[in-house]
Amino acid sequence: MIRQQFYTYGVGNTRLVEHKGIYFKCEFENPTGSVKDRGISVQISKLLEMGVRSAVISSSGNAAISAAKYCREANIKLTVFISPKLKASKKSVLEKLDCTLIVSPKPISSAFRCAQKTGAYNLRQSKDENAVAGYEALGLELIRQNQEIDAVFIPASSCTTFVGVYRGFQKGKKKPAFHAVQTEAIHPVASQFDKSFTSRKESIADAIVARITSRADEAVKIIKQSGGYGWVVSDKEISGAWEELAKFKLTCSYEGAMSLSAYQKAIKNGYRYKTPVCILTGKYYE
């Protein structure tokens, strides 16, 4: 318990900021600048309890940066597999941390093979309930900050954060509508609801990468049971939301801005909420 408290120290307790009737959860205020710290810090704490000394992760950037920080502090050897398309600014951060960095055209399968071959623990969050537990804390924290939340908009890649936050609200006995947000490039969950978009090969929100996730069915079930929806947002909608957030000093990642663009799309489609929350998942990288 002492170790877990240490490695989750400083994570969370991010601001909930209100602007024009919308609440924004500032997850870019976490130690490495993203919501990923919530799940990764719990995962690393559990590895210490288990006596694990090596780990591997595939990541679009934020999870790897978080894992590198906490593995370094825990003296756990980390191997990171990244796509050649990873932003140079994120790669630069990783290069300064104590991890083995490997560029692969198929980072997920490469990490899987590495874990099988070496016995390293695979930190893939979509397969790890410890990660979900970290995101549950975000749901419970939101309830403490505002008891009246009636809708939550969350950018979703593997849907691990989405599922965890929902479970936190369940534990807190609150039932807001849950809205999953994805891009025109990656939309395995949201496209089961939203049909008003044009598929693209790429998106400016390049941290949304999971074309397949084991948590998709659970996410769809959550959306339906909570009365929420899945939203596919365009680059134009994302950039417009990002610029609006920047005007009132909430500069975040494009992925984070997706939550506001989805809320705006929901309003256009007749949804109305008294206390909606948009999760701003990470900081902005050039």
Automatic annotation (TrEMBL):
A Gene Ontology biological process annotation? isoleucine biosynthetic process
| Alphabetical UniProt keywords | Lyase, Pyridoxal phosphate
The domain of life is Bacteria
Q: Which InterPro entries match?
A: Ser/Thr_Dehydratase (IPR050147), TrpB-like_PALP (IPR001926), TrpB-like_PALP_sf (IPR036052)
Q: Which residues form the signal peptide?
A: none
| Residue ranges annotated for the Tryptophan synthase beta chain-like PALP domain, each copy included | 9-282
Q: Which cofactor does it need?
A: pyridoxal 5'-phosphate
GO MF terms held by the record: L-serine ammonia-lyase activity; threonine deaminase activity
PANTHER family listed in its UniProt record: L-THREONINE DEHYDRATASE CATABOLIC TDCB, THREONINE DEHYDRATASE, MITOCHONDRIAL-RELATED
Protein name (Swiss-Prot/TrEMBL): Tryptophan synthase beta chain-like PALP domain-containing protein
According to its UniProt entry, this protein's organism is Candidatus Gottesmanbacteria bacterium RIFCSPLOWO2_01_FULL_39_12b
